[in-house]
Specification:
By secondary structure, the protein is of the alpha/beta class. Among the domains are: 403-485, no CATH class; 503-669, Chitobiase, domain 2 (2-Layer Sandwich), CATH 3.30.379. The chain has 15 helices and 28 strands. A hairpin with a 2-residue loop joins strand 17 (472-479) and strand 18 (482-485).
């Protein structure tokens, strides 16, 4: 039965029915013929190129002058100028003007950058207190690149005073031609779908077109931190929102960083990989076992229980194929005992129904007026990786096994005589419970007991009392079947927060490509290494919009080892850094063989790909012969843009790299929780 415009406001669907859909296009399912993303740009006429180069030269001179100033304010604000230089320079250098009018846009952006540079030179920065549409930028920790973001600052904004501002993130939709030039133009002219009263709206760039995953995910987190340094943001009133590809980003931020937000409002998009690609892309999937495990990273259906802590308002048009995203989330949430609020736009395809927009805002405003609960007494948390370890006052420190479901249900039962914390855990072997100062609802002079249930007999543990500042913390770890109070004694390598793999995890923080200056003793490996390194450099820029730092193996410094993940290309005969640590890695090289446990591969045509704690600095990774692991075929649909390789792989380079893989993957697996090789799988 067709919904009326009024009933669309309150329609709550929790079924998993999917709208039949055709693929985006048959060509997008063909691995042997993949169209380039971004597409090839137009030729820039010579006179226009001269004008742009002249404008870039002037802006660079102004930036160079500012860079010489030592005051902290100038350096903090310099990225707000650099975004214009990078946008135009990259579009010109890499042929990323897609329409003739973008050339005039670039000229205008150069003028904006030069105007800001001149203002900053005079000690002025009027854009920092401006209202309306304000493009800004920051320098990323990942690769040192300057990245843009856009703000919509309300007319009510004042730069001084006690008021703290609500912040809404808006994740943008798919844009294969969303160069920095086009993003900045949009951020100068388009306020977006929603501009709530007295709210700053943050539009992250997300490093182009990746549904804010991997480096795009970190981009949004870094943009938030930049905004919080520059504006008085209320930490308890931050919301995540988005539509289409941005709806997908909203789902994954909602389930992975649940305790950071007061509300989530995903629209359309996708919320997991396998069903969406079947429904939307009409794709026949044939994943390896490890690819299926890695789907857990971004399949939001697997993390649905986390939304018990986050008010969520989903939206779909009733004729939209991407309604599938909310439908399948509704099914996953229903299995957790949660009914998804899903507003439906009647007679609407891939767009917001005008009346539904009003109702979404009404609900979001009501939620945001209350703000985030700083201390829920009951916490439900699901995770599959220590990359996402926290929910409110619960932090998981160790999993029994990565990429299997880990869960914690924690509840506080205070009373004047004693306080009980009840824990139900599964696939968790270490955790910390921590309540910030002022929030512990315990009596200061009564005992605190932690009761743990994990499938065996209940265990009762005496925990510390709260401090006089009403903070409280206890760390627990599991030995065999028994839980103990305190951190696990140091006993060698273990997977831990930010050091748990898979290979793609290394590219969520500072990294350096370490280029070999020697030559491999095997010609095929030498050729493959040089090709894959070149591929990695080009595709990092194209897909994540930065310049990968590349250094020769002989130029790596102690600072590089201390501050960055080292991506070592080649083998021990060609790469001096790899040679230095080769005997400390679980994969070993001989003249004739690459050895992985009891498995042996001919060294003349097998290359190793891996991630492992750096023996020179176990707080950082070393990676062998890989950048991010999805490739050209996966650029065609954002639901495909997920890690494709686990912690290690062996590649037969006699099969040339293609749009999906770096060669023929003949073996691959995850390391165990202590970074040890697992026994070979029996097929």
């Amino acid at each position: 039965m067709r919904l009326t415009w009024l009933s669309a406001f309150v329609a709550i669907l929790c079924s998993a029915t999917c709208v039949p859909a055709f693929a985006d296009g048959p060509a997008d399912n063909q691995t042997e013929k993949v169209r380039p993303i971004p597409p090839a740009g137009i030729e820039v006429p010579e006179d226009e190129r001269d004008d742009l180069e002249d404008g870039l030269k002037k802006l660079k001179a102004a930036i160079d002058e500012l860079a010489q100033k030592k005051d902290a304010r100038t350096q903090e604000l310099l990225p707000d100028v650099l975004i214009y230089q990078k946008a135009v320079n990259d579009a010109l250098t890499y042929h990323e003007f897609f329409k003739p009018q973008e050339i005039n846009t670039a000229k205008s952006l150069l003028n904006d950058g030069l105007a800001r540079a001149e203002q900053l030179k005079r000690g002025e920065a009027p854009w920092t207190t401006a209202t309306g549409l304000v493009p800004r930028g920051y320098v990323s920790k990942i690769d040192g690149s300057v990245q843009p973001y856009g703000l919509v600052v309300p007319e009510s904004f004042t730069p001084t005073g006690p008021h703290r501002w609500r912040l809404d993130l808006w994740f943008h939709g798919r844009g294969e031609v969303l160069s920095e030039v086009n993003f900045l133009e949009d951020r100068r002219k388009n306020k977006g779908q929603f501009t709530p009263t007295d709210t700053i709206v943050l539009h992250p760039y997300g490093r182009y077109c990746n549904a804010n995953k991997l480096a795009g995910e970190i981009d949004s987190l870094e943009a938030i931190e930049s905004v919080k340094r520059r504006y008085r943001i209320d930490d308890d009133r931050i919301a995540v929102r988005g539509f289409s590809m941005g709806g997908a980003a909203c789902w994954q931020f909602a389930v992975h960083y649940t305790d950071r937000w007061a509300a989530a409002a995903p629209g359309a998009g996708f919320s997991e990989t396998p069903d969406f690609l079947k429904v939307f892309q009409n794709e026949t999937l044939e994943p390896t076992w490890y690819e299926q495990k890695l789907w857990h990273m971004y399949d939001c259906t697997d993390w649905a229980a986390n939304l018990a802590q986050l008010p969520t308002v989903a939206y779909s048009g009733d004729k939209d194929r991407q309604k599938q995203a909310a439908d399948i989330m509704a099914t996953a949430l229903k299995a957790e005992g949660i009914e998804l609020t899903h507003l439906i736009g009647p007679d609407t395809a891939h767009a917001y129904h005008p009346a539904a927009k009003v109702e979404i805002d009404r609900r979001m405003d009501s939620i945001m007026a209350l703000g985030r609960n700083p201390l829920p007494l009951d916490v439900r948390f699901t995770t599959y990786t220590l990359r996402y370890p926290r929910m409110n006052w619960v932090t998981v420190n160790e999993l029994g096994e990565h990429w299997e479901k880990g869960s914690v249900r924690a509840s506080i039962h205070p009373n004047p005589l004693s306080t009980e914390i009840i824990l139900n855990t599964a696939n968790v072997t270490g955790l910390t419970l921590s309540i910030p100062a002022g929030l512990a609802p315990f009596s200061l002079d009564s005992p605190v007991t932690v009761l743990v249930h994990d499938g065996g007999p209940e265990q009762s543990l005496a925990a510390p009392k709260p401090g006089s500042d009403r903070s409280w913390q206890v760390t627990l770890h599991k030995q065999g079947k028994d839980w103990k109070v305190g951190a696990r004694p140091a006993d060698g390598l273990r997977k831990r927060h930010g050091l748990q793999g898979p290979i793609d995890d290394a590219f969520l923080d500072s990294f350096v490509f370490v280029r070999p200056t020697g030559k491999s003793s095997h010609e095929a490996i030498e050729k493959w290494t040089q090709s894959e390194l070149s591929h990695a450099i080009v595709h990092w820029r194209q897909q994540f919009r930065g310049q990968a730092q590349v250094k020769d193996d002989t130029a790596i410094t102690e600072a590089d080892i201390a501050n960055s993940n080292l991506v070592l290309w080649g083998d021990p005969t060609s790469n001096a850094v790899l040679k230095k640590i080769a005997d400390k890695l679980p994969i070993r090289w001989g003249d004739a063989e690459v050895v992985v446990g009891d498995r042996k591969f001919a060294a003349d045509h097998h290359a190793a790909i891996a991630i492992y704690p750096n023996p020179l600095n176990p707080n950082r990774y070393v990676v062998l012969n890989s950048s991010f692991t999805y490739r050209e075929y996966d650029y065609l649909n954002n639901a495909r843009q997920i890690p494709k390789l686990p912690d290690w792989a062996i590649v037969d380079v006699r099969t040339p790299p293609n749009a999906r893989y770096p060669g023929k993957v003949v073996d691959a697996d995850f390391f165990d929780e202590r970074w040890q090789l697992k026994p070979a799988r029996s097929e």
